[in-house]
Amino acid sequence: MGLIRKQSFLSIWNMNFGFFGIQFSFGLQQSNMSAIYSYLGAEPEKLAILWLAGPITGLIVQPIIGAASDRTWSPKFGRRKPYFLIGAILASLALILMPFSQTLWMAAGLLWILDAANNIAMEPYRAFITDILPEEQHSLGFLMQSFFTGLGTTLANFAPAIIVSFGLISISDKMDNGIPTFTYWAFGIGAVASIVTVLFSVLTTKEYPPSAEELAQLKSEKAKGGRTIKALLEIKEAIKDMPSTMKQLIPVQFLTWFGMFCYWQYITLALSSSIYGTIDAKSDYFAEAQLLTGGINGVYNIVCFSLAFLLVPLAAKLGPKNLHFISLTLGGLGLISLPFLNNSIVLFSISNPFGDGSFELSQVYLLSFGLGIAWASMLALPYKILAGAIPAKRNGVYMGIFNMFIVIPMIIQIFALRYFVYDWLGSDPTNVIILAGACLIAGGISALFIKEKLAPTKSVAT
Known about the structure:
Blueprint: E1 4-5, H1 9-39, H2 47-50, H3 53-70, H4 81-97, H5 104-132, H6 138-165, H7 181-204, H8 212-224, H9 227-240, H10 244-248, H11 250-276, H12 284-307, H13 311-318, H14 320-336, E2 346-351, E3 358-362, H15 366-378, H16 381-387, H17 395-424, H18 429-447, E4 460-461
Parallel strand pairs: 1-4
Antiparallel strand pairs: 2-3
């Protein structure tokens, strides 16, 4: 690819803007899928299994897409950008259809499509950073993704509450399938955000072309029809040659993502049970818990993107693994505190710019602050540690394999919760959130044992 030139802040902003739309889509899933399943008749103990789409598609799609994108080049679209665009189009279609689900399995099937599409778009975005930016700008690049993750997910989480606050749609307005009307409008907004922001990044960012030697190899593989086989063999070889630093990240990723999947699946039920004393999906209290989930998730993502750039100097001063330990510990303590928090003590209120009344941040929002710090760290620091340890020519495949450290814990969590852990925790959603907090703290402790080892650096032009 030749020399890697330093990029301006605006260029790094533009190249990552599409991450906003991808994460808007993920934010809608995180805050609304358990509620959608509940409206369609899912029992609490079966919620985990209905989330299987995400980790399975991630496990299959991301390593393959990562390896395939390493072997892709289009003079018109580039190396990674075609995957962003295809993923965004498919995600937008799934988002539009989701609120019209008539059965659990229709919603679950659409989630499979949505997750596959988001994985197609997201995985090459990680490699996009290491392709275009020199090593000294990796932290800024990944933390810019954390910023857009926080911003996109925040707006996705708040979207239903904002829609209701306009006064045009009541919290009790339902579609024929029992899903609130505000969910329909929020998912429609997400569909537009997904395609528009990705298209902006595709049109404003230019990728480095492969060298003459690399281009000849790509054309040869395409002519022989062996690109898919080569990609699969590359995955196998990359796993075999995995750097030691990457291996040391496995327990950190396992524990943190096990915990976050517990949180996303059960936070609405935990809030409904802990705050409102019911988990009846037909009650208005459950709809209130769905909106409260969006608010809490929105606040933790505001914290995430507000602190994203502050982590750059902190990581340089404290070291990425030490900062990751501190961040995950704060997040874990926030989740463990849930049983001691309530929604009646108001910390402060903000005047509603969209209608009458105000937005009130109650005591329960305290868990959002620690979780937001942890989330910003999770989205950036492991990738910072990884990026310095992997060879540049395998950026895509190793970023795809690294996603296995996220999705395999999720798969284990799904079956463990469904067949063992949920009963062991007294069938109490609040205890699932406490378990999530304990996992984040344990993941932070694991980060302290990482021994960083750098890969050979890329050539840089200034």
